[in-house]
UniProtKB/TrEMBL annotation:
Top-level taxon of the source organism: Archaea
InterPro entries (UniProt xref): DUF7382
Region of interest (Disordered), residue spans: 1-23
Keywords carried by this UniProt record: Membrane, Transmembrane, Transmembrane helix
Domain DUF7382: 81-115
Name of the protein in question: DUF7382 domain-containing protein
Pfam families associated with the record: DUF7382
Residue stretches of biased makeup (Polar residues): 1-18
Transmembrane regions listed in the UniProt entry: 35-56
Amino acid sequence: MRTSQQRTQASPSRTRSTRSFESDERAIEGLPIRLVIALVVGIAALSIMMNMLGGIGEFSETEVTIEWEDDHVLEESELASTLSFSVVDDAGNRVEDATVIVAAGSAQLDDPVYVEGGDEITIPDDAGLRQDQNTGTLEVEIVPPSDSNYVDERSNPEIVIVNR
């Protein structure tokens, strides 16, 4: 094994700083804390940037829901009647060109009913309650226009059918 004097003589082109770095066994002591600090600062900067992006209107999505203009509770004898509705966003603004789909829930409905861009829906007379059932629901889903930032992720008010 060479001593530091022999190493210096063997390679005279090495600088003094290189020799001191080689002989310094403490050179790595500050590295872990520097990495932790860099990681914390990086995460903080990333969270600030993500928060700024979330506030930009064109990247955010707006929830839509259905508002019934009439009572959406029907007696079983009132089937084949027309219900008026509006598809609105969170701020209450009307959403045009949305498709509303009514399907069987706990009440029966042979085929789903589709309304594209309208504001009235007729519940067919084949909808109804099962035997020994006093109340049932028809589920409502909204398909927002495809060229918009609207989404329908929350549940919508259902149509309730009762047997009185």
